[in-house]
Design a protein that fits this description.
It is an enzyme of class 2 (transferase). By secondary structure, this protein is an alpha/beta fold. The protein has two domains: about 250 residues, Rossmann fold; about 190 residues, Glycogen Phosphorylase B (Rossmann fold), CATH 3.40.50. Helix content is about 45%, strand content about 15%. It is built from 18 helices and 15 strands. The strands form three sheets. It has a seven-stranded parallel sheet with strand order 3-2-1-4-5-8-9, with helices on both faces. Helix 2 links the parallel strand 2 and strand 3. Helix 4 packs parallel to helix 5, helix 6 packs across helix 8 and helix 11 packs across helix 17. The N terminus is likely disordered. The structure holds uridine-5'-diphosphate. Uridine-5'-diphosphate (UDP) binds next to helix 1, helix 14 and helix 15. Uridine-5'-diphosphate binds next to helix 1, helix 14 and helix 15.
């Protein structure tokens, strides 16, 4: 469909990393941008297993402007990674590096996709430096979309590069030694001969003029400005990009919603550690005791790796826990409609691993956070949550172990006690302020992308 010269049809190919927490924001960005302009056409490229779970999340109304394109990963060369593992969702942790390798090896298939679709623009994620190179070789401009926040990117640049003289200049984000070690291990994590830190750095340096980042100036203004200076490119915040709960097909009769409907306002904590982290038996035990001691009602999502078909949730919980909790707690095995739960008025706190999407979802719905970061960018996100004032991190033991008493105390403080009033108020204030600038931020994204496409046309 061709409109006027200024509003000619623009096709945009998106290539997110193969994780639910990445594909969702790419999809939400596409939805938000198509609301603003009817001349945009998006292709979202991912593996069949990811597309099968993401497709039902897209309502019919977008079918004319958002299409899905399959990316096939090699499987004969990597028999340990069958197609149902072409996603981080439920992936056994020891296969993460194989998944990154397989993703790299799909580059020639991706080149065919570029060749066939000939998009006006590629929007790519932060782990695949081959994607912008291929796009440029097809004369297609490429822009990075970082689904991590600016503070994390700065931390990666400061911690990863041995020759870097850059010191992380923000005292508000101070990681204890065990978290620095954990963070360094992650960015030094190597797959297919390339460290994650290098992937991230190469991806940002390949981005044309600007870098999109899933964040908001309401939360991260000083980090966004600092990072823009550091990389010499404008960091353009896209806002929280939370999936519209109306798009989540949970029927109102579902046991979770019914259970929540019976609870008092802001009385329940939602407990979840995202799509990639699997709690150890010891961690499950500590959290269970923490919840029990807190006396607060809860919904707790517990998941096991896909290959684990035998573990029963009752076996990993402390003896008699389910019986003792009775109606006070609901354990959900596998997957819960998170956005729908967080926006329910009965929810008054989120015990979270602080995956960045979870943090933004919690802020979007004004739910204060009890932070229990586990890996990756989560420790930085948790410090940011405290700095912004929308949550509290539960204290850990010296070496980093979870402590039931500290978990119970943090839950009590944030959800129930007078001491948490400031955090609860702040969560509402930041929610309102972020909402006020959301539209402005998306307009700026659109303007920047249109300028780039026009420039390269
Ligand atoms: N999520 C969900 N239900 C679950 C677990 C996760 O809907 O049971 C969604 C959650 O709402 C978020 C994403 O999966 O959008 C997880 O992303 P995040 O960055 O928080 O964590 P990750 O999974 O990357 O560790």
């Amino acid at each position: 469909m061709v409109y006027s010269q200024q509003h000619r049809s623009i096709s945009i190919l998106m290539l997110p990393w193969l994780a639910h927490g990445h594909i969702s924001p790419f999809l939400e960005l596409a939805k938000k941008l198509t609301h603003k302009r009817n001349n945009l056409h998006f292709y979202i490229c991912s593996t069949p297993v990811n597309l099968t779970s993401i497709k039902p999340k897209l309502s019919e109304k977008y079918s004319h402007c958002i299409e899905f394109v399959e990316l096939h990963l090699p499987h004969d060369e990597l028999p340990e990674l069958p197609p149902h593992y072409h996603t981080t969702n439920g992936l056994p942790p020891h296969l993460m590096s194989t998944l990154k390798k397989a993703f790299d090896m799909s580059s020639s298939n991706f080149s065919n996709v570029l060749q066939t679709l000939k998009p006006d623009l590629l929007i790519y994620d932060f782990l695949q430096p081959w994607a912008p190179s291929l796009a440029l070789s097809h004369n297609i401009p490429a822009v990075e979309f970082c689904t991590i926040n600016a503070a994390t990117i700065i931390s990666i640049f400061a911690n990863h590069f041995k020759n870097s003289t850059l010191k992380f200049p923000f005292p508000g984000i101070h990681l204890p030694d065990y978290e620095i070690r954990m963070f360094k291990n992650q960015v030094e994590f190597s797959s297919n001969g390339l460290k994650d830190g290098d992937r991230i750095q190469q991806c940002s340096s390949s981005s044309c003029n600007i870098i999109l980042a899933k964040t908001s100036r309401e939360i991260e203004a000083k980090y966004i400005d600092y990072l823009s200076d550091l990389v010499g490119k404008k960091i353009v915040p896209v806002g929280p990009l939370v999936q519209d709960p109306l798009d989540q097909k949970t029927d109102e009769e579902s046991p979770i919603i019914q259970w929540l409907n019976k609870r008092e306002k802001s009385s329940v904590v939602y407990v979840s550690f995202g799509s990639e982290y699997f709690l150890s038996k010891e961690e499950i035990e500590e959290i269970a005791h923490g919840l029990e001691l807190s006396k607060v009602s809860f919904i707790w999502v517990i998941r096991f790796p896909k290959e684990d078909k035998t573990t029963k949730v009752e076996e990993v919980l402390p003896k008699g826990f389910v019986e003792r909790m009775g109606e006070r707690g609901m354990i959900v095995e596998g997957w819960a409609p998170q956005a729908k739960i967080l926006q329910h008025p009965s929810v008054g706190g989120f015990v979270s691993h602080c995956g960045w999407s979870s943090v933004l979802e919690s802020i979007k719905f004004g739910v204060p956070i009890i932070a229990l970061p586990m890996q990756l960018d989560q420790p930085v996100n948790a410090k940011l949550v405290e700095e912004v004032g929308v949550g509290v991190e539960a204290r850990r033991a010296e070496g980093g172990g979870l402590q039931r008493e500290a978990i119970a105390e943090a839950i009590g403080d944030v959800v129930v006690k007078k001491i948490g009033e400031g955090v609860r108020m702040k969560a509402l204030e930041v929610r309102d302020n972020m909402k006020k600038i959301e539209d402005e931020e998306i307009n700026d994204v659109l303007e920047q992308l249109e300028q780039l496409v026009q420039l390269c046309a």
